[in-house]
């Protein structure tokens, strides 16, 4: 009877002696993920050792340990991507996973080794690392302010600015034929507008040529008359 009572008490201590809790931490690929873990430090003597493992907390120590600390400094580190950035002296032993990857998803155990039998503080974490979210914001609409040279086309994402080249009178006459569609009519109208502006500028050289020929002819006639009279 006495042995049965002792066995029952031992089982109760094993099952209820340690403080066990469980948390879920969600992060994204490429980010630094912090898995929280703290314990109370009443005095300098309250600083104690602890470990992190890549599995649920076993009855002792850590399964697949990734980092250890004696409470003052890190004594064992499986990878530089696993770091303790908290204030260890004040009981902040949170685990930071640097540049998280999908392979980092899984169970993590924070085991704080407190004095006494079966007094360890145990926290099981489930870490979920997801792909980074892609922004679905609509693209910005803007209008290009660049001025294009004659004959070139400057296009923006939604608005295009076009400058049509000057055309001759014959081309303007050809453009007066009926258009086949609205877009053709707009192009013909633009050509006619440009023609009305450019034609006078093209006629100035011809006027100068005619005036020069007439002046030469008049001088030649005067010279012939002077020779004839003499």
TrEMBL record:
Q: Does the record carry Cytoplasm as a key word? A: no
Where would I find the Ig-like domain in this sequence? 30-135
Annotated region Disordered: the residues are 139-163
Protein name per UniProt = HAVR1 protein
Alphabetical list of InterPro entries matching this protein:
Ig-like_dom, Ig-like_dom_sf, Ig-like_fold, Ig_sub, Ig_V-set
Q: Which gene encodes it?
A: Havcr1
Q: Which SUPFAM superfamilies match?
A: Immunoglobulin
Record flagged with keyword Signal:
yes
Q: Which Gene3D superfamilies match?
A: Immunoglobulins
């Amino acid at each position: 009877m006495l042995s049965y009572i002792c066995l029952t008490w031992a089982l109760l201590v094993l099952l209820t002696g340690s403080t066990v809790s469980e948390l879920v931490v969600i992060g994204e690929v490429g980010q630094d993920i912090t898995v929280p873990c703290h314990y109370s430090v009443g005095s300098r003597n309250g600083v104690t050792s602890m470990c992190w493992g890549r599995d649920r907390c076993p009855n002792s120590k850590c399964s697949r340990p990734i980092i250890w600390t004696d409470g003052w400094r890190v004594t064992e580190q499986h990878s530089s991507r696993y770091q303790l950035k908290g204030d260890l002296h004040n009981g902040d032993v949170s685990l930071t996973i640097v540049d998280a990857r999908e392979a980092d998803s899984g169970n993590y155990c924070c085991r704080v080794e407190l004095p006494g039998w079966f007094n360890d503080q145990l926290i099981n974490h489930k870490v979920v690392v997801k792909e980074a979210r892609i922004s679905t914001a609509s693209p910005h609409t803007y209008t290009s302010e660049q001025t294009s040279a004659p004959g070139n086309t400057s296009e923006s994402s939604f608005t295009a600015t076009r400058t049509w080249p000057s055309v001759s009178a014959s081309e303007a006459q050809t453009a007066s034929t009926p258009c086949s569609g609205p877009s053709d009519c707009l192009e013909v109208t633009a050509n006619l507008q440009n023609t009305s502006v450019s034609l006078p500028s093209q006629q100035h050289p011809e006027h100068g040529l005619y005036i020069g020929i007439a002046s030469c002819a008049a001088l030649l006639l005067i010279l012939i008359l002077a020779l004839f009279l003499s």
